[in-house]
């Protein structure tokens, strides 16, 4: 933004005048009001010139045609939308320079390796617990406390901020604003699951849909929509304690969860995918978890290498 | 084959344009990271031709910068520049396609000259860029008002919201555009 740009208040007033003039021709009295507004200062004149330039650029577009082009379907915009949010998906080692922000504002880049967790206290006293294979960036400025979740799963406990700055987690699908809270985000293949442990958060998707979630609720959002809130379970946050708690879940789901904490390839054969599993598993030692599963279920573990394991029917 | 030729041409062009001061910085940057950047662009765009062009544009743009001594993270820097170009490129390409489609469906319109197509695509791309990040409803209300001249009441009934909401939407979009331009 230029330093000689008119103050925001005057720009807002210019926008308002533009709307009024477009709505209907000004009365004589209104015109006088406008003139005295316009003549107040150089800033007023400049703001009005900006508004007129903008208005002219719209008038140069033939009606009907421009709207058809600009309202092209979301499907046609998919790559662009992905790209616009895509700067967040640069590998974290590269240090992300968000286009509009000076690099020095990035106070930290955090990531965890597969199978590792990390707890980080932020400058305002808020706490982030990062689960396996998670990457995020932190940007705090005078107005906003912002986390960019690049991938993975986090739990955030926000602290009261002396500057009363909002706390926002931004993702490729939209953002979550904490309203004094403990909450979790988990990046799924096609969306983000948010679950709230304390107080409230507000989810806003990239397309502008909004939803409040209360403590004890969870929902999944993608770019365009938010699922209906469902009750969340304590089991959902068991990962914070390094545990996986499942109750009558399919084996394929459990194996998928375990695979998040392991290097290499862990696959579940369709022959045993629908076996039901309940239990509490310790995530720091997934080999033992697999062994225990093999002891209690009619399955066998085929270790081709330590990094290539298939869960299959018994030999 | 054409792909290889294009790639080769980019390299000659870039290395031939260096002025002495930035010579070593950009040459090093290019030598160390050109294939990585090309891979990155190709992955994002899914098209080798566009990727090679955009890599060329990225280095051309860096050549025009005044101060290159502050680059601490070369790949982050390259991707930041390349990303901006890529967003423009994809936006322009989409809009050009949609514009030409729309023209085809309007038989009564004379075929415009390539220059006027260019100007219109440029204008539409600028408007599209200004509207980035606005909620869908705000965007629609604004486009109906500014491009089709619908009244606030008509827009309100299309969106099933009150007239005062429509006015708020339009004010919000207008302010957003003015701030983007300033």
UniProtKB/TrEMBL annotation, chain A:
<dbReference type="Pfam" id="PF16220">
    <property type="entry name" value="DUF4880"/>
</dbReference>
<feature type="domain" description="FecR protein">
    <location>
        <begin position="109"/>
        <end position="202"/>
    </location>
</feature>
<dbReference type="InterPro" id="IPR032623">
    <property type="entry name" value="FecR_N"/>
</dbReference>
<dbReference type="InterPro" id="IPR012373">
    <property type="entry name" value="Ferrdict_sens_TM"/>
</dbReference>
<dbReference type="GO" id="GO:0016989">
    <property type="term" value="F:sigma factor antagonist activity"/>
</dbReference>
<dbReference type="InterPro" id="IPR006860">
    <property type="entry name" value="FecR"/>
</dbReference>
<dbReference type="Pfam" id="PF04773">
    <property type="entry name" value="FecR"/>
</dbReference>
<protein>
    <submittedName>
        <fullName>FecR family protein</fullName>
    </submittedName>
</protein>
<feature type="domain" description="FecR N-terminal">
    <location>
        <begin position="13"/>
        <end position="54"/>
    </location>
</feature>
UniProtKB/TrEMBL annotation, chain B:
<dbReference type="InterPro" id="IPR013325">
    <property type="entry name" value="RNA_pol_sigma_r2"/>
</dbReference>
<dbReference type="GO" id="GO:0016987">
    <property type="term" value="F:sigma factor activity"/>
</dbReference>
<dbReference type="Pfam" id="PF04542">
    <property type="entry name" value="Sigma70_r2"/>
</dbReference>
<keyword id="KW-0805">Transcription regulation</keyword>
<dbReference type="InterPro" id="IPR036388">
    <property type="entry name" value="WH-like_DNA-bd_sf"/>
</dbReference>
<dbReference type="InterPro" id="IPR014284">
    <property type="entry name" value="RNA_pol_sigma-70_dom"/>
</dbReference>
<keyword id="KW-0731">Sigma factor</keyword>
<feature type="domain" description="RNA polymerase sigma-70 region 2">
    <location>
        <begin position="29"/>
        <end position="94"/>
    </location>
</feature>
<dbReference type="GO" id="GO:0003677">
    <property type="term" value="F:DNA binding"/>
</dbReference>
<dbReference type="InterPro" id="IPR039425">
    <property type="entry name" value="RNA_pol_sigma-70-like"/>
</dbReference>
<protein>
    <submittedName>
        <fullName>RNA polymerase sigma-70 factor, ECF subfamily</fullName>
    </submittedName>
</protein>
<dbReference type="InterPro" id="IPR007627">
    <property type="entry name" value="RNA_pol_sigma70_r2"/>
</dbReference>
<keyword id="KW-0804">Transcription</keyword>
<dbReference type="InterPro" id="IPR013324">
    <property type="entry name" value="RNA_pol_sigma_r3/r4-like"/>
</dbReference>
<dbReference type="Pfam" id="PF08281">
    <property type="entry name" value="Sigma70_r4_2"/>
</dbReference>
<feature type="domain" description="RNA polymerase sigma factor 70 region 4 type 2">
    <location>
        <begin position="125"/>
        <end position="177"/>
    </location>
</feature>
<comment type="similarity">
    <text>Belongs to the sigma-70 factor family. ECF subfamily.</text>
</comment>
<dbReference type="GO" id="GO:0006352">
    <property type="term" value="P:DNA-templated transcription initiation"/>
</dbReference>
<dbReference type="InterPro" id="IPR013249">
    <property type="entry name" value="RNA_pol_sigma70_r4_t2"/>
</dbReference>
């Amino acid at each position: 933004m230029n330093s000689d740009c008119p103050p925001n208040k005057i720009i807002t007033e210019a926008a308002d005048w533009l709307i009024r003039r477009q709505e209907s021709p000004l009365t004589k009295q209104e015109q006088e009001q406008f003139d005295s507004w316009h003549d107040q200062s150089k800033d007023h004149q400049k703001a009005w010139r900006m508004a007129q330039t903008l208005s002219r650029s719209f008038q140069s577009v033939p009606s009907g045609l421009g709207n058809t082009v600009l309202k092209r379907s979301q499907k046609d915009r998919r790559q662009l939308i992905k790209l616009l949010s895509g700067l967040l998906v640069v590998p974290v080692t590269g240090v992300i320079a968000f286009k509009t922000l000076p690099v020095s504002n990035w106070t930290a880049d955090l990531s965890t390796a597969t199978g590792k967790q990390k707890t980080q206290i932020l400058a305002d006293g808020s706490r982030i617990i990062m689960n396996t294979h998670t990457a995020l960036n932190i940007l705090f400025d005078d107005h906003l406390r912002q986390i960019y979740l690049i991938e993975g799963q986090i739990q955030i406990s926000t602290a009261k901020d002396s500057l009363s700055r909002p706390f926002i987690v931004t993702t490729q699908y939209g953002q979550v604003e904490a309203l004094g809270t403990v909450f979790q985000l988990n990046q799924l293949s096609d969306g983000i699951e948010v679950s709230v442990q304390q107080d409230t958060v507000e989810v806003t998707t990239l397309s502008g849909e909004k939803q409040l979630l209360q403590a004890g609720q969870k929902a999944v959002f993608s770019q365009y929509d938010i699922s209906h809130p469902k009750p969340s379970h304590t089991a959902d946050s068991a990962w914070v304690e390094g545990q996986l708690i499942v109750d009558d879940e399919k084996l394929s789901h459990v194996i998928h969860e375990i695979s998040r904490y392991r290097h290499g390839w862990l696959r579940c054969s369709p022959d045993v995918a629908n076996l039901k599993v309940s239990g509490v598993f310790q995530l720091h030692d997934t080999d033992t978890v697999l062994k225990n599963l093999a002891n209690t279920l009619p399955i066998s573990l085929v270790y081709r290498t330590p990094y290539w394991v298939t869960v299959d029917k018994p030999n | 084959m054409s792909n290889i030729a294009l790639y080769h041409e980019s390299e000659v062009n870039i290395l031939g344009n260096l002025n002495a001061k930035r010579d070593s910085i950009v040459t090093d940057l290019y030598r160390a990271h050109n294939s990585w950047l090309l891979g990155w662009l190709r992955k994002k765009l899914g098209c080798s031709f566009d990727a090679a062009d955009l890599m060329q544009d990225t280095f051309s743009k860096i050549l025009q910068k005044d101060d290159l001594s502050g680059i601490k993270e070369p790949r982050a820097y390259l991707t930041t520049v390349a990303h901006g170009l890529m967003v423009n490129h994809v936006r322009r390409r989409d809009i050009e396609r949609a514009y030409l489609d729309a023209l085809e469906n309007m038989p009564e319109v004379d075929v415009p000259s390539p220059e006027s197509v260019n100007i219109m695509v440029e204008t539409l791309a600028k408007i599209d860029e200004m509207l980035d990040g606005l909620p869908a409803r705000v965007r629609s209300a604004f486009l109906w008002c500014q491009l089709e001249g619908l009244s606030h009441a008509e827009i309100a009934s299309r969106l099933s919201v009150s007239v005062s909401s429509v006015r708020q939407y339009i004010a919000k979009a207008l302010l957003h555009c003015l701030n983007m331009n300033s």
